[in-house]
């Protein structure tokens, strides 16, 4: 009997599918970007929420839904295949912009964000897993840099565009018409053109000498607590997205309270993910050469410094500078953490490890919404930002002290 023939691994061998998945993930990012400028302002200006904690409930709902779905996406993609999970995510995303346009009560916005979180967990997780399947071990950092760059450049572009539309036409419905177009295009591409990549992971697993059988419980505990690199990455990912939840929910309110216009707020809200997105084109590939640990540690400390500057600033120019710094720090961390998970996890349980990591990472949205809201209500927005800057610095030190370098020396030499 002839041995099974597995698909070829590598970026060049799978260039067409990889490029398509980059485009699909840009549309996934656009679905998130439609909310970044407009929804925090809807909370205060249309729904009259005067408590920071209440206004951040939409991020709490999004974060909890996305975190839980990330874990399920990893398990389901190993059980049923990657493509069905991706398509299911787009079907769930379709009603979100319609609900945001129609919502007569704040709880409808929260419900829309539950759906958005579920859809993001399914679609974004699956595009990550599929790209890691395609490229194999030698270009994981570059692959994750391209994936996350596409997503967050789309977040930035859409945040900027919806801010401009809102300044010209109002907060609803026009800004959310973009989301309708993104959902239709993403669903069409995923159904008609995207191909299954589970066979690529099976081929890589077949060539591995390490045992690949682990229970779901063992993978969860291994990624969350036991394995030093995986658990260090999980806590850093949580704090990173805690920062993003803070920026998403409170930065627009801080900027408007300081007298900036909606258009200026749109520029600031877009600048941070734009630098984040573009920076990952460089940092992902650099992590294939320099290793993962140094970039993650430096990125967390850079984010802490950026948040401290944001807490003290009072002008558009100063906030623009801190947004650039925050984006740069996040770019160092974001693709590198995913690449580190891919380095350590066996191909047979890698999707579940990624799902577990993304569960912890995106729990940061929920933790950030609660922590930032409570601190801002009790002490003020600037004091809340200072506290989270300190927490971010501690997270970077945990990586420095506990994580080992995950990039194999042979790959580092060949990169």
Automatic annotation (TrEMBL):
<feature type="transmembrane region" description="Helical">
    <location>
        <begin position="109"/>
        <end position="129"/>
    </location>
</feature>
<feature type="transmembrane region" description="Helical">
    <location>
        <begin position="12"/>
        <end position="32"/>
    </location>
</feature>
<dbReference type="InterPro" id="IPR050171">
    <property type="entry name" value="MFS_Transporters"/>
</dbReference>
<feature type="transmembrane region" description="Helical">
    <location>
        <begin position="85"/>
        <end position="103"/>
    </location>
</feature>
<feature type="transmembrane region" description="Helical">
    <location>
        <begin position="52"/>
        <end position="73"/>
    </location>
</feature>
<keyword id="KW-1133">Transmembrane helix</keyword>
<feature type="domain" description="Major facilitator superfamily (MFS) profile">
    <location>
        <begin position="229"/>
        <end position="415"/>
    </location>
</feature>
<feature type="transmembrane region" description="Helical">
    <location>
        <begin position="150"/>
        <end position="170"/>
    </location>
</feature>
<feature type="transmembrane region" description="Helical">
    <location>
        <begin position="385"/>
        <end position="404"/>
    </location>
</feature>
<dbReference type="InterPro" id="IPR011701">
    <property type="entry name" value="MFS"/>
</dbReference>
<feature type="transmembrane region" description="Helical">
    <location>
        <begin position="245"/>
        <end position="263"/>
    </location>
</feature>
<dbReference type="InterPro" id="IPR036259">
    <property type="entry name" value="MFS_trans_sf"/>
</dbReference>
<feature type="transmembrane region" description="Helical">
    <location>
        <begin position="176"/>
        <end position="194"/>
    </location>
</feature>
<dbReference type="InterPro" id="IPR005829">
    <property type="entry name" value="Sugar_transporter_CS"/>
</dbReference>
<keyword id="KW-0812">Transmembrane</keyword>
<keyword id="KW-1003">Cell membrane</keyword>
<feature type="domain" description="Major facilitator superfamily (MFS) profile">
    <location>
        <begin position="1"/>
        <end position="198"/>
    </location>
</feature>
<feature type="transmembrane region" description="Helical">
    <location>
        <begin position="325"/>
        <end position="347"/>
    </location>
</feature>
<feature type="transmembrane region" description="Helical">
    <location>
        <begin position="359"/>
        <end position="379"/>
    </location>
</feature>
<keyword id="KW-0813">Transport</keyword>
<keyword id="KW-0472">Membrane</keyword>
<dbReference type="Pfam" id="PF07690">
    <property type="entry name" value="MFS_1"/>
</dbReference>
<dbReference type="InterPro" id="IPR020846">
    <property type="entry name" value="MFS_dom"/>
</dbReference>
<protein>
    <submittedName>
        <fullName>MFS transporter</fullName>
    </submittedName>
</protein>
